[in-house]
Each structure stands twice: as structure tokens, then as C-alpha cells.
Amino acid sequence: MLRRSRPFDEGDRYVLDSFLNQFWPATVDGLSLGAIYSLVALGYTMVYGVLRLINFAHSEVFMIGTFAALLTVELTGITSPLGTVPLIAFVLLLALVAGLVSGGTAVALEFVAYRPLRRRGASRLAALISAIGASLFLQQLFALVVIPWMFDRPKEGGRLPVQSADFVEPVNLFSIGPIDIRSDKLIIFVGAILMMVALDMFVNRTKLGRGIRATAQDPETAVLMGVNIDRIVTATFMLGGAMAGVAAALYLMRFEETEYFVGFLLGIKAFTAAVLGGIGNLRGALAGGMVLGLIEMYGSAAFGSEWRDVIAFSVLVLVLMFRPTGILGESLQQARA
Amino acid sequence: MLLEIQDIHVHYGKIAALKGITLEVDEGEIVTLIGANGAGKTTTLKTISGLRPLTSGRVRFNGDDISRMPGHKRVLVGIGQSPEGRGIFPGMTVEDNLYMGAYARSGDLSKELAEVYELFPRLAERKTQAGGTMSGGEQQMLAIGRALMARPKVLLLDEPSMGLAPKLVQQIFSIIVEINRRGTTVLLVEQNAQQALQIANRAYVLETGHVVKSAQAHALLDDPEVRAAYLGGGAGGEAAVAAAPAETSVPEAREAPDEE
């Protein structure tokens, strides 16, 4: 009890020092990690906005995207690290392939796991169970069949991480004061922001985007306007899946490996980001992802990286206690975005 | 006949909402469905626009059987609806809401937009306002204007007077008359039977999923049973506003005060 009476003990000083020393690097890491969370969060939030369904298999949409990117690296036969400009071009190619594969996977999921249930008027709970089932199915399919076959491994090897060729040579592009900006982290951040701006414009300015917003706000009236809901749902899964695919390509560039389980924790984090920002709200996904990424990195800087997940989820619980609708509050139903 | 409903039955789960409704709407008419809450008026409109599946019976439009046509395609054949509760997209601007009305169409919409703004000058003033922040009367105008954007052959109106002050109700009804005068057939569902019967050519009275009466609208205004059940019993007929000729009523609508 004596200890408690001291306002500032050694332990506290250690936490503060270590936090201050690592503040800027943690900010850079937090923003590039947050950018990936944000991109994946878009898929959760869009599907929720239109169908009021949490697509728990979205984490596997991401996972399949990382493998699509990995396979593309293998097929191009790149073995040595690329300089910054060729790297940007190469990441664009990876993002395109992974975006298409993940988008296609998300649409396939909708056709196989969700649409038949909706047709029969099943409850939302049934769709949720179907989502969890699809998620587990895809994980195990990759661990047991796809990975051993694709990388020519024995069956047990399917659960081990798969490395990609080393195609990134991170260089410090420039420094802002004490902050070093590394090429790969900058590519992630800028790439993710550009994708989100593009998606935001698409949803707010195009006819299909207007159809998506109308369906999210009032599906029955949308039908009266001549909106084909099935087509809107397909487009929503495609767009959300493509964003996860782009995130997967960026993830592979940053970490240069993946595994069948890669989507699990990242998916939960991205879902957390979507809820944190206000589920159903596109700009909320951006805000939630960035906030979550920063909190994780600041938390690791202060308390050590083993506390990172504890801190992230504690913040989620706290935010939701005081702001149940998330940071930005309004959803795709009410907001313009 | 433009629209023919032949002995339709509609169920919500096991509960029958419509138990064999037959009605017809001819080109150029205003036809009204009146009846108490739960009589099946809204369900009838939703069935015509394809939001509710038929258990049995047929819906014919322009001579074609559209009973199995999905809802989103019925807009293109010429069925427009202003739904119950107005169904305004709250997060969209007035103009985006209007563009939603023409979602099924493609091409230049400036003529339709100009026409709607001419009919509802108030909407032109509020183009960039979010639909959800408008007053009830303005939302009702927006819902009707939005339905007109698709140039429907028949306009289905579900309780356009709901929740509006008497003066505004009168204004909405004179606009309905004007829309009809310009060539759009109208099928009007109303609880405000007095007003509805005054502007309609013909009327159907619905009770618990059945048509219990159908006649010329003015005849029902004098029908003692209808008076007792739906017109407040008394001799209120003359006190209510007569259907004003469209030529005078529309300028009046334009200058309408802000109130609801």
C-alpha cells in the first residue's frame, strides 16, 4: 500500500520512457497496420450495411487473397528484391490479381453460403452460422488440400507458414524530423488510402453506388425504384472482397509470408475496426482501422508487444461502453457515405 | 383495362392478409381503396408492385400477366409507387432521392426532373437537403415526385395524407388531381375516405381482406353504411373541401406555407 501512495514509481517511468522513445516509429507502424485493417474492415461494413449480416468468412476472403498474391510472386519468378519504382508496379500487379481472386471468392461465398438461405427466408442467425461454417471450411480446405497441392508439400505441411520469395528491399525514402519513412510502409498507407477514396467516390457518385446506398437505407423501397437487390448484393460482396484482396497483396509485401490461419486474428481485428468506427459506415472503417492500428502500436511501445491484443480489445470494449454506435456513429443507412 | 387484379390471395406466414380481392383500374381513372387498418389496402398495393408474393390469383397489367414478374422489373413496365410511410432514403439528398426514382431508366432525366420541380417547387428549393431532415409534408411530396421520375402509367399512392395537417392534405390531394389530369392513372389507398372519395372516379371498400363494396366514388359518399363506417357518421360531406379544379389548385400548392 505504501507503493500506491507514490505518485510516480520506477515502473511507471519505464513505461513512459519506452512509450516516448518509440512514439514516432509506433505511429508509422500503426498507420501502415491500420491501413490494412481499414481495407479489410470495408468488406465487413459494406456487407453489414446491405444485408445486416456479419460475414465471418471475410477473413478467409483475405487469406485466399494472400495466397493469390503469393502464387503470383512465384509465377513471375522474381527472386531478388526490387527497387522502389519496380516494386510499386509489381505491387499493383499483385493487388490486381489478389483483388480479383478475393472479390470472386466473396461472390462465390454469397452464392453458396448466403443466397440460398435468404431465398428460403432463413433467419439472420442461420446466415451467421453459415458464415462461421464457411470460414472453417475454407481454412481447413487450404490446410489439408490446397496448400499441400499448391506448394508440393506432404499433407502435414499444410499448416505451416509459406514464405514468398524476398521481393521487397525496404529503403528509407526520407525522414520527417525523427520519423523514418520506409518505402514498403508508405506504399501500404498510400495504396490503402487511394483504394478507400476510390471506393468512397464509387459509392457516392455512381448509379450502382446509389443503388447500394438505397438498399442499405431501405431495401423494400429500393425494389420499388427498380433496384435489383440480388445484383446489388453481388456488387457489394465483389467490392468488399476486392478491398480485402488489395489488403492481402499489401500484407504479403510487408510480411513476405502467409498461412491458412492468417485471416483469423486479422479478420477479428478488422471486424473490431469496423465496429469501432461504426459498422455500416465506410469512413468509419477507415477511422476505426487507423485508430486500432495506432492503439496497438502505442500499446506495444508502452507495455511490450505481448500486450498488443489485450490493449486493442480493451479499447474496443471501452469505446463501445460509452459510444455503442462506434466513433463515427452513423451508418451506411443514415450517412451519405 | 390498364390494371386487373383477379381473385388474389396473399399470406404472411400462415395468416391470410388478402382473401380473394378482385379489382380493376382503367386508364385515366383515379380509383381509391378505402377501409380500416388491417383491411388489406397496403398489402394489395405491395402485391401489385411485386413486394409480396401471390398465393393464388393473377395480376394483369396492360393485358400482360405480371403475377410472377420480380418487383424491380415492374417499374419498367409502368408501375410507380409512393409507399406507406413515404420510404424516403434519409441519408440521400432530395435530388439523389429523385434520381433513385428513375433508377430503372437510363438516359437524360432533366425533363422529368424539371417536371417534378414544377409540380413541387418546394423540392427545388431543397435539392441538396438530406431527405431524412425534411418535414412530413415535404417527404410526401418527395415520395410522389420520386415515383413520377420513372414516368409510370399507373401511380400507386399509399396513404399520402398520413400524419399531415388538414391544409397540407388538401394540397397533396389537389396535386394528385393534377397528376391525373396530366395523364397518369392513379390507384389511391386512403384512410381519409372523405377526401379520397371526392377526387376519385370509383372506389372499392375493403374489409379484412375482402372487397365488400365497389361503386362510383360519389355514390359511396352518399351510401349510409359507408358514411357510418368511414365518413365519421355525420353529414360532413359538404364541410370537407371539394376536389378543386386542378387549374386553380396547383398555383395554390406552389404558394403553400411552410407549415405541416
From TrEMBL, chain B:
PROSITE patterns per the UniProt record, alphabetical: ABC_TRANSPORTER_1 (PS00211), ABC_TRANSPORTER_2 (PS50893)
Keywords (A to Z) from UniProt: Amino-acid transport, ATP-binding, Nucleotide-binding, Transport
BP-aspect Gene Ontology terms: L-amino acid transport
Domain of life: Bacteria
Transmembrane segments: none
Coiled-coil ranges from the UniProt annotation: none
KW Isomerase (keyword) present: no
InterPro entries (alphabetical): AAA+_ATPase, ABC_branched_ATPase_LivF/BraG, ABC_transporter-like_ATP-bd, ABC_transporter-like_CS, BCAA_Transport_ATP-bd_LivF, P-loop_NTPase
Domain ABC transporter: 3-233
CDD domains registered for this protein in UniProt: ABC_TM1139_LivF_branched
GO MF assignments: ATP binding; ATP hydrolysis activity; branched-chain amino acid transmembrane transporter activity
PANTHER family: HIGH-AFFINITY BRANCHED-CHAIN AMINO ACID TRANSPORT ATP-BINDING PROTEIN LIVF
Family: Belongs to the ABC transporter superfamily.
Protein name: ABC transporter ATP-binding protein
